[in-house]
């Protein structure tokens, strides 16, 4: 008799259903940071969900892992408040801080990044990646949890942003939609090396700019214009633009 899929013992179980559990956990954790009533009612449930996910991912000492993760929540909240204030300060469309917390996809993506980054720091790599993929699906913003991002980070619009694992973004940086901070080569042998750029303080990167390479540094106070392609470092206080010719002519009727 031919083997059927249901009878087969050769397929490893990857607990794919955990994707839904991590989605619910990530949403709940985000709510808990900013809603005291939600925190009071759901903190025990979120801990139970965390322990269940960690166990199924074969993470050791899940109870200790949760405690080490939880102790960073106040610090993460403080960083996110700085991010929200930076968005409200610089975006003329933002009418209030409440609007940023409640309606900005960029802020949502940053919040899940800061939470998942802490898990990444605690060596829960798969768990952290699942959280970042939840945010990616909801916002269209792809921030690897291994990236290092400083204070007062501002993402405007955000759709299509990609920030690679070894990117370093320092303080007071603004990034617009479609920006890629990527690697110039895709080789497995480079997995333990710095593959993505460093962005210094007070840099603004406009829409669809692409910056590639682990040795690339964008100097402080620089402005990177829309649609540029950068594979070499930029000194501080620079303005980088892409020039193209646009012709407008009158159509014949």
Top keywords for this entry?
five-stranded parallel beta sheet, globular, serine acetyltransferase, domain 1, alpha/beta, UDP N-Acetylglucosamine Acyltransferase, domain 1, 2 domains, about 250 residues
Task: Describe this entry's structure for a reader.
The protein is α/β, with parallel strands linked by helices and 253 residues long. It has 2 domains: 14-141, Orthogonal Bundle (serine acetyltransferase, domain 1); 147-239, Hexapeptide repeat proteins (UDP N-Acetylglucosamine Acyltransferase, domain 1). Helix content is 41%, strand content 13%. It is built from 7 helices and 14 strands. The protein has helices spanning 18-34, 36-56, 62-70, 73-90, 97-103, 105-121, 125-139, and strands spanning 142-143, 148-149, 154-156, 162-163, 168-169, 174-176, 180-182, 198-199, 204-205, 210-212, 217-218, 223-224, 229-230, 239-240. It has a 5-stranded parallel β-sheet with strand order 1-4-7-10-13. The longest helix is centred in the first third of the chain and has 21 residues, at 36-56. The termini are far apart. The mean pLDDT is 94.
SSE layout and pairing:
Elements: H1 18-34, H2 36-56, H3 62-70, H4 73-90, H5 97-103, H6 105-121, H7 125-139, E1 142-143, E2 148-149, E3 154-156, E4 162-163, E5 168-169, E6 174-176, E7 180-182, E8 198-199, E9 204-205, E10 210-212, E11 217-218, E12 223-224, E13 229-230, E14 239-240
Parallel strand pairs: 1-4, 2-5, 3-6, 4-7, 5-8, 6-9, 7-10, 8-11, 9-12, 10-13, 12-14
Helix pairs in contact: 1-2, 1-7, 4-6, 6-7
